[in-house]
């Protein structure tokens, strides 16, 4: 049976186009619909991908402005679905929905929509840092522990790699929605005032970049997936080590884990997850992993319900895909390359 096209809202933007490229690489015959405000731009992306068509959309309309008779296997919102009509369209048609642009304090409408119509469509809440790829990598590292006590993630995003207009608008909107940070401290999810949430994030070459602990889905996701009583994620925007070397802006995520091994002896690890091409490949990976799982291209199609990335994708498999894309893990104890 032929799969219907995957509808990528914002498909001509950075996240959408990169997701399309990755899905095309993995599934050469998977049809795609690239949806955007500019038909010319969407058509260029569709032509480059092949087996794809382009459409314009209107997020203010319940039917998204799509012609009657169109059908899709999934709806992927790689931009802010500000009216939630992308979600409504997916529920009306009984197909999976993926979103990546709602912060921790913004997911309530999506959760309510899923709760009101629980049997209509699977909903993947992937508004994590890099659409869940960093969370999956961290959970993979945590599997070496018999008990995880604390998780500290420090992410450095290069200021010239913050995404296109939609990505920048997301950052500004989320900063307005909440300047407080969320951590898990002694087993309790705790809000941290902005002034107390300010921290420095260490780049892989040792440079300290001002940042802050943020309210992001990764914090409860990591805490509940591992049982760690202390979890935090700090985020900084500045010059990356790659750009300081005169290369492409890189992304650097430091992951520190503390706990115990099977004998009860203390165990810790400090790793950097890095990609020389920046955040774009990691974000596209998080989305693409969710899409192929939801529509049954990897495993069985997913039943209606509300899901997070770690519920659908094996972290070990995600790390395999990360390394295939050029990401690498570097010990924080290893001297950085000059």
From TrEMBL:
It comes from Kribbella flavida (strain DSM 17836 / JCM 10339 / NBRC 14399). It comes from the Bacteria. This is Saccharopine dehydrogenase.
């Amino acid at each position: 049976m032929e799969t219907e096209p995957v509808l990528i809202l914002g498909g001509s933007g950075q996240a959408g186009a990169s997701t399309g490229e990755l899905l095309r690489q993995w599934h050469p015959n998977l049809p795609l619909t690239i949806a955007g405000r500019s038909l010319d731009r969407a058509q260029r992306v569709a032509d480059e991908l092949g087996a794809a068509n382009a459409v314009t959309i209107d997020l203010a309309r319940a039917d998204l402005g799509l012609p009657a008779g169109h059908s899709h296997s999934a709806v992927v919102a790689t931009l802010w679905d500000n009216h939630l009509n992308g979600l409504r369209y997916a529920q009306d048609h009984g197909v999976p929905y993926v979103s990546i642009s709602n912060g921790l304090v913004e997911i309530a409408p999506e959760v309510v929509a899923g709760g009101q119509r629980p049997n209509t469509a699977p909903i993947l809440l992937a508004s994590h840092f890099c659409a869940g790829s960093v969370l999956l990598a961290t959970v993979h590292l945590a599997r070496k522990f018999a008990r995880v006590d604390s998780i500290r993630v420090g992410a450095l995003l290069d200021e010239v790699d913050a995404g296109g207009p939609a990505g920048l608008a997301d950052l500004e909107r989320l900063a307005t929605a909440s300047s407080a940070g969320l951590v898990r401290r002694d087993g309790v999810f705790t809000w941290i005032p902005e002034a107390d949430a300010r921290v420095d994030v260490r780049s892989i070459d040792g440079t300290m970049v001002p940042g802050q602990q943020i309210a992001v889905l990764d914090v409860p996701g990591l805490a509940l997936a591992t049982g760690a009583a202390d979890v935090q994620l700090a985020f900084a925007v500045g010059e990356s080590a790659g750009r300081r070397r005169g290369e492409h802006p890189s992304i650097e995520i430091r992951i520190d884990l503390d706990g115990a091994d099977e004998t009860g002896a203390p165990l810790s690890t400090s790793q950097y997850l890095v990609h020389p091409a920046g955040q774009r490949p990691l974000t596209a990976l998080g989305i693409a992993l969710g899409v192929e799982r939801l529509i049954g291209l990897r495993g069985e199609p997913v039943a209606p319900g509300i899901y997070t990335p770690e519920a659908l994708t094996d972290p070990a498999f995600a790390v395999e895909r990360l390394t295939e894309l050029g990401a690498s893990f570097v010990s924080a104890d290893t001297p950085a390359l000059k």
